[in-house]
Amino acid sequence: MVDKDLRERYRREDIAHMLHGATVPKEFANSANRIFAEGHGVKLIDIDGKEYIDAMSSGFCACLGYGNQELAEVAKQQMTKLHCAMSFLNRASLPEIDLARKLTEVTPDGIERFMFANSGSDANETIIKIVRWYWREQGQNRYKIISVQNSYHGATYGAVSASTFPGLTRHKNFEPFLEGFVQIASPYCYRCPFGKSYPGCDIDCAEDLEKVIQKEGEGTVGAFLSEPVGSSPGNLIPVPEYWPKIMKICKKHNILLIIDEYITGFGRMGKFFASEYWGIKPDIIMFAKGLASGYLPIACVGITKEVYEGMTKTNAPFPHVYTYGGHPVSCAVALKSVEILQRENLIEKAARTGVYIKERLSHIQEQSPYVGDVRGFGLFFCIELVADRPTRKPFDPAKKVSAAVRDRVLEKGVMVGVLGPNNANIMLAPPLIIERNELDRVLDGLEWGIRNFKP
Ligand code: PLP
Question: Closest Cα partner for 384 from 398, 401, 399?
């Protein structure tokens, strides 16, 4: 534990000198800041010495938990051997090539070439540029990218132009966004944007892609971008017909399919990539969070042979580089992280654990009138709270009910997440290494928090 005077100093200096994103200034100034000092296994320890099970893996990242010595050792070895190298102008480093080779084994069929970035946002910038470059190299002006309402793809201008996540409050202050970004309805069955219910609907949310392509003009649309499961809006698991229909429409209009597996990849949902649940065959894929388990920043874009051939048709060099893209230490750590994931069978374990989590959350749902819907599999679940279960009446978002439950659960030493458009979603995404007794502490804490929740 950090001593009392030092703790107070850190609190004061955090408030005085830091500009934190997504933080309400007045709440922050009133010292609601939580500062962490250590992490071990699935636990985080704050500067007051309080321990929490981190059931959000530091924003979906810490899949292998905290304090992994093997990963630290690999980083140390690579740092002393070659800590920095360029990944452009014909240059590369060994760990980068090793990682790319490994990724060809685990990514969806057809993905065979990779470019590394430092974050999900700049990986999505890379993708936006790939799409525009690819089509213009074929002499076509297909610059538009269609994405899904209520989705989040990053903070940089291109990525944010493809995002319409309502949690981005006062988002409009950043306008103007980039031109050429259009959205379709999201596959949110619990609150169908068309007021229909499955299976009586015509999967209108997928059909919306066809409509928007027609409206925009086929010759202007370059790609469709989506997560396999809408994570930020609350784990929107699409119905079985959704993805086959979307893929058919992309094929029919010859548009590229981009899958953002930033959160859902690397075993989080009980398969290497969530795309596998629906046999999604992306032309371009993006992933990151579990890639190096948060030990170092790294994100990756994977493309097919066809996309590469299209991009290089005129033999012009793709003018897009990141100084730190393909950083040798990040790549070495990511490679070891994938090895551990496979060696410890953590993805199969996540799939099995997901069945147990679903059972326990369904039980909580039966007991509480405020649990409207439970969505997820593997180690990624969302609980949507409602004011009235039979009518699905939402809570007033201003009440921030999910934050109220999260804060109760915190009293039990468990950190769950809140995310989503209505301030009513509780998210669970613990590290993949979590053991049953630790998970029971998370679920017991959550059950207690929900039982004691008074709107
Ligand atoms: N794509 C998705 C689906 C995300 O959830 C996020 C961030 O959470 C991003 C992209 C952007 O990633 P980053 O925050 O690393 O820039």
Answer: 401
